[in-house]
Specification:
The chain is mainly alpha-helical and 66 residues long. The chain contains one helix and no strands.
Length: 66
Amino acid sequence: MAEQRTRIRRASPNDSGADAEAPQQSSGFRDQVSAYGDLAREVYADCKKGAEAQREINARRNTSAE
């Protein structure tokens, strides 16, 4: 039973919370995180293009209303 006990450690102010004895993440996990990062960059780029298009539409409306 002693092997199944959870090791409790005191956190320091500069501690990231990661356990030094934690196993390394698999490459599949890193690939998945990388894919989510790529997706986030694509979504951000699409949103930026949409915002630029909306500003252009608003500018046209303002000049045509004058």
